[in-house]
Amino acid sequence: MEHLIIMAGGVGSRFWPMSTPERPKQFIDVLGTGNTLLQDTVYRFGHIVRDENIWVVTSRHYYDLVKKQLPFLDNNHILLEPCRRNTAPCIAYATWKIKKYDPEASLIIAPADHNMTDVEEFRRVIQEGVKFVKTNKGILTLGITPSHPETGYGYIQSGKALEEEKICKVKAFKEKPDYATASVYLREGGYYWNSGIFLVKACTMEQALRQNLPEMAKLFDNLDSVFYTAAEQEAIDRSFPSCPNISIDYAVMEHADNMYVYPASFGWSDLGTWGALYEQAEKDAAGNALVAGNVKMLESTGCIVHAPAGKKMIVQGLQDYIIAEENGVLLICRKADEQRIKEFSELF
Amino acid sequence: MEHLIIMAGGVGSRFWPMSTPERPKQFIDVLGTGNTLLQDTVYRFGHIVRDENIWVVTSRHYYDLVKKQLPFLDNNHILLEPCRRNTAPCIAYATWKIKKYDPEASLIIAPADHNMTDVEEFRRVIQEGVKFVKTNKGILTLGITPSHPETGYGYIQSGKALEEEKICKVKAFKEKPDYATASVYLREGGYYWNSGIFLVKACTMEQALRQNLPEMAKLFDNLDSVFYTAAEQEAIDRSFPSCPNISIDYAVMEHADNMYVYPASFGWSDLGTWGALYEQAEKDAAGNALVAGNVKMLESTGCIVHAPAGKKMIVQGLQDYIIAEENGVLLICRKADEQRIKEFSELF
């Protein structure tokens, strides 16, 4: 069966004050679609994954938000981390829990806060990918054909092509490059943005984690008897902090020899910056992206405005600014200076 | 005795959204002094006018605001207009009420929403002025020595000087001039900004109103018996709407032959525009005027920011903007475009 594991533990600090530790970006309707990013992530898999096969891994602080936004989720499917330990322990927890009853499960592992503009193509790619991992003992990453030399993403270099030249072996993972290097990647071709979305069978994932993080694997082996019982949360709260703080890329993918990449284009964005959010959001005729609020723009272009529902704002004479209000905090800053938002947020 | 009549019925529409019809500018601490403009107006007359000789004329909608901000005021000293009728009826109401028991009273008549930076000099001028009107049957206006060819104020042209050349006869009142005309005024000299503050004995004011607006005078004569009784408000509510909608300048001063002007300089401003407010407010090293709120300015200059108490704002990379929030409405606009604020306020 296909299972969807949604990683929803991020804190979204780059989107302050819209996104706060109390309510990070994945729990907000940042694109003004009427759904939060988490909800959109789930809905995107409609008819591909059954509701009872959806799993959300998040911080224990966000239980109420998940429960409210995805009320159909059984408590057993909301995996609550007592502390942040990056993606490897997060994926291990879900994998161990699922493999207890379905080691042959096809796992689709995806962040909760990404966006795809071409959902039909995304669904086609996922379905092709599931077919692939069902019959191959590999980890299939989705690589995005780059449109520009982006320095904010990691890249996947493809190797030999399989399957009528769509899916390729991975030759190498590349860290976020500088602009010159990214330009070389684009010129040479065969490099794809690492979307952070991947597909793998539960038993394959288990094996890879066991091989690369044997102590962590043992930790989850010891929890096997408490999964799906009333004792699970307490046991996780006790054991999980011992997990290494390490990403799945660094812990597994960069060393594994069964890595594959599916080069695809479905209008993907990690919505990792206000700039990315601006690109993906609907814009008015003057190129302003207005998310919620009751906002009037005059002689303004290229702005992105986030306001609480119903909040009235008049913005006149601004070019390329971020205007964001939440929880009684207002930020006005140049879009070009968004990398300083963390610094701004620390001023209070 | 000296009596102070404060005209506090304005609606301050140019300062939206900071100032609203529910709470206009005179009831707000727009300069960040810790006092509202109404309070500062009263406190400025400390030891010149006794508390029991202070009168506030305002709209009946603002009774609670006046009562809260000036709790020492007896209800008989809060004169409530049932509708807006400009300054002549406002002044007539107060004059008739005061002259009932003290026709020889010296009246100091002042708007509630002006500012003076040199309070000591202002107090000296007021005291000199009171001396003058006690012994002269005239109306003494305070004329401000102009510092620049302002087109937002009316001007008073002085005539022959009296009293060791300080107080002069008024030769003419001039409407708000265009820039060229204002420049001529400055070059020629003998023209002063009309501050809207004037001094006059109650009986002199009564006589002038009786002569210029005889029907209105009769209306207030008829109310004489109800002043200071429980029936006063109901009678005013019934009669006041019949008053002509006319300013004291137009109704009396421009025709009277007993007009005097005291040329003075005490850092006066009518705070009539955001620009004027900006000039009078305290500014940080970068020239930003921050009124209330918890506001951090970065790489910003020449801005004026009004935020509700405690409201957190970060403003980065703005030059010469107005940022004002009140009652859940935020305005961001260029200072140079402030004359369009009324238009902006009508967008909702």
Describe this protein's structure.
Chains A, B: Belongs to the mannose-6-phosphate isomerase type 2 family. Chains A, B: Pfam families: NTP_transferase. Chains A, B: GO terms for molecular function: GTP binding; mannose-1-phosphate guanylyltransferase (GTP) activity. Chains A, B: Keywords: GTP-binding, Nucleotide-binding, Nucleotidyltransferase, Transferase. Two copies of one chain form a homodimer. Chain A has two domains: 2-270, Alpha-Beta Complex (Spore Coat Polysaccharide Biosynthesis Protein SpsA, Chain A), CATH 3.90.550.10; 278-345, no CATH class. Chain A is 30% helix and 26% strand. Chain A has helices at 37-43, 63-69, 87-101, 119-135, 179-188, 202-212, 214-223, 232-239, 248-253, 274-280, 341-345; strands at 2-7, 54-59, 78-81, 106-111, 115-116, 139-144, 155-161, 168-174, 191-201, 259-264, 268-269, 289-291, 294-298, 304-306, 312-316, 321-326, 329-334. The first copy, chain A, has a five-stranded mixed barrel. A four-stranded mixed β-sheet of chain A has the order 12-14-16-17, with helices on one face. In chain A, strands 5-11 form a two-stranded antiparallel ribbon. The longest helix of chain A has 17 residues, at 119-135. The mean pLDDT of chain A is 95. At the A-B interface, β13, β15, β16 and β17 of A face β13, β15, β16 and β17 of B. β15 of chain A pairs parallel with β17 of chain B, so a sheet runs across the interface.
